[in-house]
Recover the amino acids of this structure.
């Protein structure tokens, strides 16, 4: 149909062949094939060139509508492919980035091996800042509080913090649960202000004056390393301490009267249409 349209416009099989980068014989053969398939004569060939028959003119007009629709469809497909190919900028809290996001990315790669995600790993407050500034399209945060006004959110995982200590720590052999006042008064190794883990801990111990920290560290890995060295009790996600508990490097401590539950949320700018890749990531994260 594209060849027929070019012949109609240019009045020459040869010029149509040049436009489409094929031989004149190939154009002539294709036109003959099209006439046989449609069961009607489309072209009148003569010394002055090639003209459309009346039937050819009608079919060419119908064909132009089909070509316009096909062109619009391909433009739309190209836009989708461009959005997919451009990748996705994600900002994620440490717990999500280390323990959940790798599985989500693997699932996306299982569907589309060419998917590219640029992931910035930071604490929850900085994730929100990155979303607000447009530095990332989707973010993942931890904590009790809903995101600020202007941001949409959906819970992707329920989590709980747990108190863990070195096996030589007195709490490792303690039978009675540790109470809120005891935990608030202990020399804890904690995450830095602004992290979702620290936010939940501060909220949980606010009634007793908040945590009494002896050391603040900027990553979950650093806090875990301090706990393994016996520098004090730490309070981290069950996701983060699972391997150390299973290997016996750390011991979980039972608590009483302390709310250490939290939600892990995906956040993005409210009212903004997410790209197809961002939508797929959210679908995987919430499934």
């Amino acid at each position: 149909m594209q060849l027929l349209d070019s012949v109609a416009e240019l009045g020459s099989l040869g010029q149509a062949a040049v436009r489409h980068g094929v031989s004149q014989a190939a154009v002539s053969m294709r036109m003959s094939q099209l006439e046989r398939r449609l069961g009607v004569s489309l072209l009148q060939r003569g010394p002055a060139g090639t003209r459309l028959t009346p039937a050819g003119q009608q079919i060419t007009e119908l064909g132009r509508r089909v070509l316009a629709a096909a062109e619009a469809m391909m433009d739309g497909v190209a836009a989708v492919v461009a959005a997919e190919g451009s990748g996705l900028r994600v900002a994620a809290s440490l717990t999500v980035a280390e323990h959940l996001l790798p599985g989500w990315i693997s699932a996306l790669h299982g569907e589309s091996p060419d998917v590219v995600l640029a992931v910035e790993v930071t604490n929850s407050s900085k994730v929100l800042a990155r979303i607000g500034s447009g530095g990332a399209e989707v973010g993942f945060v931890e904590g009790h509080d809903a995101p600020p006004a202007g941001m949409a959110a959906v819970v992707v995982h329920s989590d709980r913090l747990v108190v863990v200590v070195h096996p030589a720590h007195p709490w490792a052999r303690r039978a009675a649960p540790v109470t809120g006042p005891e935990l608030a008064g202990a020399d804890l190794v904690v995450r830095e202000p602004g992290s979702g883990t620290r936010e939940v801990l501060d909220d949980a111990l606010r009634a007793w004056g908040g945590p009494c920290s002896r050391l603040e560290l900027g990553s979950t890995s650093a806090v875990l390393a301090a706990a393994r060295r016996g520098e004090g009790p730490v309070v981290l996600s069950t996701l983060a301490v699972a391997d150390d508990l299973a290997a016996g490097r750390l011991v979980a401590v039972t608590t009483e009267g302390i709310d250490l539950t939290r939600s892990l949320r995906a956040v993005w700018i409210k009212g903004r249409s997410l790209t197809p890749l961002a939508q797929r990531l959210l679908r995987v994260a919430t499934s």
The CA atoms of residues 196 and 247 lie 26 Å apart.
